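## Example record

The block below lists the input lines for one assembly entry, exactly as stored, with component labels intact.
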Amino acid sequence: MTIKIKKQSGKSLRQTVEEMSGVDMSLCYQCKKCASGCPVTKYTQSPPSEIIRRLHLGAGDELLESDLVWMCLSCETCYGRCPMDINIPAVIDALRSLALEKGSKSPRGDMPLFNRKFLEAVKAYGRSYDLSMIMGYKLGSGSLMQDVEKFPSMLAKGKMAVLPPSGAEKKVVKRIFDRSKQAKGKKK
Amino acid sequence: MRYAYYPGCSAHSTARDMHESADAVARLLGIDLVEMKGWSCCGATSAHQTDRVMAASLPAANLLLAKEMGLDTVVTCAACYSRMKTANHEITSSADMRAAVADAVGQPYDGSVKVRHFVEILLEDFGIDKLRKRFKKSLNGLKVASYYGCLLVRPGNVTHFDDPENPTSLDRLVTAMGGESIDWPHKVECCGGGLNLTRTDVAVKLSSSIVEMAAASGADCIAVACPMCQASLDLRQKDIDAATGKKHHMPVLYITQLLGLCLGIPEKELGLSRLMVSPAGVLKALQPASSHQV
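Predicted structure tokens for the full assembly:
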């Protein structure tokens, strides 16, 4: 496999990710235990060990479009098994935040859209609202018909709330969302 | 035994049965779960995939409610449990994070409120011997695959729930109920829940391997403690059948539903009718608890 590295000026992606995640990338000696245990290694182009290696080698923003960035299940198996205790899920989360900030290309399945729809409901109601989240995601991703056969039984069995959730203390949730936007504004 | 109870958003949608069964079991055992007033979403995967401070602040807002109540927090959803434990971990280990969270929620929080899973309080606070004496029915040798998934057990240095590679909490409960806790290798494999809607192709492959391994290991049913695992294995079982070309009939019950049945709680109160794969086989296996089990 060929790893293409573009030359970067200024702060490297590695430095940025290290600051955001608190992970010292130099601890990785490529034992690939993370790649062996990763449930999605079979389905991705780049296993977790390769993401770290590419950061070692000076990868730039092209790394943000690696499919593992949004395929990672945050199952924490890699972190649990890493002999050097490297918090790889925190590295992936940092790459995700950067991908959003820099407007990287949407991945197959569009997880950022899913997250946006999920968080929009949380911001509006203080709690998640599956029905609006799923509809919003399906409309946006064009996967309207997928799983549609599950809705009647989910509704009948009470596994899908029709009305939006109520009862949450929305003020604090709104404050958290507002501050988050501010934090992003400051960084730029 | 009194706790600040955080039901989590799924308690009112996909995991209503988890909430109902935990509530019924707690009531019967005299465990007082006091629902936090005004609780809000923990942020789940979407928050931590977006913004680290937001991901710690949303759980912190709820943990502050428990702090006001002066009680430990009890959670039934493994995902909420993980988010709350992670928030506490990040807040206690970084002064920067502590400051950022205090700014976001509008008051200081030191990360000190204890977060416990309902299974932990059953085993550690109530006690398995005391629990065993309360069983009116036995699983009578029913073969149960205890499935822990990811978020209860990993990372071990954050959740401190059992052994991260070979946990036995659910197995111990199954054995106490008179079931046969089967030895199988997929206890802590990932069900793919996080990709359920966005990459269903991959998610179904991962959940298929769990159900197939449970079946190959001789399980009559799977016991879970996470709403995402439950949905991946139960709600998606027809997709699993289609993907594998096999007809599985593997009931996937919350551990609290099994406990409720053995404690003699009526099925209706345990939300059993909400399961997609019928638990009829499990119900048929139930026998009155015999004296040697007590």
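The radius of gyration of chain B is 19 Å. Chain B has two domains: 2-117, 129-289.
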